[in-house]
Design a protein that fits this description.
By secondary structure, this protein is an alpha+beta fold. The chain has a single domain, classed as Peptide deformylase (Peptide Deformylase, Alpha-Beta Complex). Helices cover about 20% and strands about 35% of the residues. The chain has two helices and eight strands, in the order αβββββββαβ. β6 and β7 form a beta hairpin. The longest helix is centred in the N-terminal third of the chain and has 16 residues.
Length: about 160
Amino acid sequence: MNLRAVLKNPNERLRRKAKKVSVEDIHSPEIQTLIDDLIETMQVENGVGIAATQIGSDKRVIIVDVNGVLPLINPEIVGKSLRKIEFEEGCLSVPGVTGIVKRHKEVKLKAYDRNGEPLTIHAKGLLAIVLQHETDHLDGILFIDKVIRYTNPPRM
């Protein structure tokens, strides 16, 4: 495992769209090492989630740690509740900044686990928020793009 530097906004690599990982590549040393590095980096940085784009990788891989560490490869939100909730968010790539973001209260997500097994997650509450936040990263979207009001605004 290897601690990796977390890219900070406005690094332009945070705005790139990540590429899907082929099912064959999931078992590769590159992807398995990436997963291990993401887990270690997230834990050292005290995050509840991290996306591969945050450490400069262009792979569609995220880690969430709400009810235990869960690596997700090619995560895709395939269902969303109509109801939304407001939640205070922060981000390892935007240190010291927090704000209220409105997100779907529940989501359905499909992905592969680190063994290449397909899985479907029905999430609500904090897990749903973290899944939306991290999948946004894979599309080059930061939480500050969706903030409706800052609780700790960026310094100018």
